[in-house]
Design a protein that fits this description.
2 copies of one chain form a homodimer. Chain A is 52% helix and 5% strand. Chain A has 6 helices and 2 strands, in the order αααββααα. In chain A, strands 1-2 form a two-stranded antiparallel sheet. The two termini of chain A are 35 Å apart. In chain A, 37% of the residues are buried. At the A-B interface, α1, α4, α5 and α6 of A face α1, α4, α5 and α6 of B. Chain A binds a DNA duplex through α3.
Chain lengths: 151, 151
DNA sequence: CAAAAGTCTATTAGTATTATAGACTTTATA
DNA sequence: TATAAAGTCTATAATACTAATAGACTTTTG
């Protein structure tokens, strides 16, 4: 049930790009800055951001003063979307996947105990990941920060 | 978020071993029979069952008329236990794992957005998998079977 | 003792993940 | 208009993990 490094790095980068700066708006950041702050191998991050860009989640600008920024409001980008792009389907087994269904070969899918249970798992993962946006997370983080400060 | 083949095969085998026979009790089955009925490569299944046995979930008997059977009542063996034995921790990232915690390297774990969200995911997976026993599943399956028959 | 069954460890083949390399394109600005 | 800063793109290497296979060994029953 592991999230790959690709997925982890991508999520970290997206969270960073969704975290409002001093002007209160999501920043434009260079690969270099993200990779240094999050300790992600630069060339690897490059590929990841490119993938995310090609999927329509990021915009970028080339040249001096360029960089990456969110293509949509942080409230409209879910964890689920990011993970699916970078790591593929959320489902533990293909026969319960919504985006990449494949039969598992058991005689009767409707009465397969493994499938019934893994279906529940997939649904609960999807519920959280699809129900959590980048904005939800940055809000939650700043809330926790405040709570910790006042204690 | 994938379950490995090892984990899948192991769960299938355990469900089979938990499904009561005509005498109403969990059966003793040979590797051969399980591997044929579930179409699992025999030698691979052999390793898996051995692992499960060494973990205390199965008992076995060598020699003529031998085979494998559950070491405990089906109600006392959870999916979570089986998956952890065969596939390792349920947590998507190590920094939220209960059984195999490792720091992820972010400056402050308490306020890491990735960690907060993945913690939720790990908890909801664990809740389902640890809360579902082999007995729960075989019951559910036979219930679904009846429902389908009467329609 | 022979056949049926599990035990144990090693090894291979295949695939996926993670990371690196390098040549190329675009853009701002000195 | 040249240069440096930035992203783009594709290939490849290195590693690790997964899945599967192999084979020699042990135990048990009849």
């Amino acid at each position: 049930m592991r999230l790959s490094k690709r997925g982890e790095y991508g999520l970290r980068a997206m969270i960073m790009l969704a975290t409002p700066g001093q002007d209160g708006r999501p920043p434009v950041l260079q690969i270099r800055e993200i990779s240094e702050r999050e300790k992600i191998p630069g060339k690897f991050l490059e590929q990841i951001l490119l993938t995310l860009k090609n999927a329509g989640l990021l915009h970028s600008k080339m040249g001096v003063g360029g960089g990456y920024h969110l293509a949509k409001p942080a409230g409209e980008i879910s964890f689920g979307h990011i993970v699916r792009i970078l790591d593929g389907p959320l489902a533990p087994v293909k026969c319960v996947s919504q985006m990449a269904y494949e039969p598992c070969g058991c005689p009767d899918e409707e009465t397969c105990g493994l499938r019934l249970t893994m279906g529940d798992v997939r649904n609960s993962i999807a519920k959280i990941l699809d129900g959590t946006s980048l904005e939800d997370v940055t809000r939650r983080v700043s809330k926790v920060r405040k709570t910790l400060k006042s204690s």
